[in-house]
Specification:
Length: 407
């Protein structure tokens, strides 16, 4: 299993941002002919067990590569295309953080506000947990996805409709993992709290704020929070996970026995496309396309969505691994990822059947997006390695560089 998947596929942080790459290496010749190379690697991922993949790379010089490939067994459900909508998982956090920082710039919130100010009585020790701590995952709050009841809904075994307030209440039943502000510990609870705070400050729903402040100004016509009436079932790429028999050996230790995803059987897979997404909301509920998300990332890193002070705060990171302070870091809803071809900014996301990696450079000129229609299917070594190779190649193509030997 790759380093990326070892960290993403612990159910303690299935929506967590994770490192997909190794340290940078020296480079030799420019990356030649990215379109055939990426297309070949996408097909290799399919040949090694990946159900479907969408790749989009913009090298910043007017060359955009778009690739979509899928396994034959999935074509009866939906014919995948490069413009398909996709469940974006924890990429949602970058968008929600942008909304928070816009309000900070407007002096309607402060990064050092205790969350108790906005959500009185809803967060244990809320007077000691600040908005900044929620944004960069240093609050110590328990990740509600680990609760068995929420996990059943997340995997489609229970159709319960969770409210954001109920998700906070689930988290509050468990002790914190650390004292506020002391260490990085990824928790979806942080962004559910931020979503509720956004609604408290503005009097508007998170879904409406996304449309009014980001999607419409950037002309993102296929970007919205799941649960919206805008869901276009004909454009949504289908997601898949191994069925109960085949997922059992892929699950990390400590997962409740019998954990599996629900959905129509497709050979050794189940179609997870229509699993209830109410447990995700502001932590992972966005739907978008590769092109829309690339436009968002470009606008964000180039300074179109935030003033310089707030963008600088967003890019001020804490180490994801304390033992590697110069490695990957987490800012305010934005990850810094050290890849074989250079440092990128963005996020990644995982929900049942959907794995997404979205990156841009420090100036917002170049982007690479790899959307893969499985999460646990990538624990299988051949599939995971092929998908990782494809992701590395997409990022290197974004930088006009070859993939370093041995990466």
């Amino acid at each position: 299993m790759t380093k990326h998947l070892r960290s993403t596929l612990a159910l303690a942080g299935i929506l967590a941002a994770t490192s997909a790459m190794l340290a940078p290496s020296a480079f030799a010749a420019p990356f030649a002919a990215p379109q055939p190379k990426l297309a070949d690697l996408a097909q290799k991922a399919i040949d090694n067990g990946v159900p479907g993949v969408i790749v989009r790379v913009d090298d910043g010089h007017g060359h955009v590569t778009r690739v979509a490939r899928q396994a034959t067994a999935t074509k009866a459900d939906h014919r995948i295309g490069p413009d398909d909508e996709f469940r974006m998982g924890s990429n949602t956090k970058t968008l929600v953080a942008t909304l928070v920082l816009q309000l900070v710039a407007e002096h309607r919130m402060k990064l050092d506000d205790p969350i108790e100010k906005w959500l009185p009585g809803q967060i244990p020790n809320g007077s000691a947990i600040t908005v900044r701590m929620l944004l960069n995952h240093t609050s110590g709050l328990f990740n509600y996805v680990n609760d068995p009841d929420v996990l059943r809904s997340f995997s489609g075994r229970d159709n319960r409709e969770w409210t954001p307030t109920e998700l906070l209440a689930v988290s509050a039943k468990y002790p914190p993992g650390s004292a506020p502000g002391t260490e990085f510990s990824y928790s979806n609870t942080n962004y559910v709290a931020l979503g509720l705070a956004l609604e408290k400050v503005t009097g508007k729903s998170v879904a409406d704020l996304i449309q009014q402040r980001i999607a419409r100004p950037l002309h993102l016509k296929h970007t919205y929070l799941s649960g919206s009436s805008r869901l276009d079932r004909t454009r949504l790429a289908h997601g898949y996970e191994p069925d109960a028999e085949h997922i059992a050996p892929l699950l990390p230790p400590g997962v409740p026995e019998g954990t599996a995803f629900a959905g129509p059987q497709r050979g050794d897979l189940v179609d997870t496309t229509w699993i209830n997404s109410s447990s995700e909301w502001a932590a992972g509920g966005m739907i978008s396309t590769a092109a829309d998300w690339a436009r968002f990332d470009k606008a964000l890193l180039s300074g179109r969505l935030l003033p310089p002070a707030e963008l600088k705060a967003m890019r001020t990171t804490v180490p994801e691994d304390p033992a590697d302070p110069d490695g990957n870091g987490y800012g305010l809803g934005l990850r810094k990822v050290v890849t074989p071809c250079g440092t990128v900014w963005g996020h990644d996301g995982q929900v049942g059947g959907y794995n997404s990696v979205t990156y841009t450079d420090s100036t917002g000129k170049r982007t690479a997006d790899v959307l893969t229609s499985t999460v646990f299917g990538l624990v299988v070594p051949k599939a995971g390695a092929a998908n990782q190779t494809l992701t590395d190649a997409a990022v290197c193509a974004m930088f006009d560089k070859p993939v370093p030997a041995g990466s």
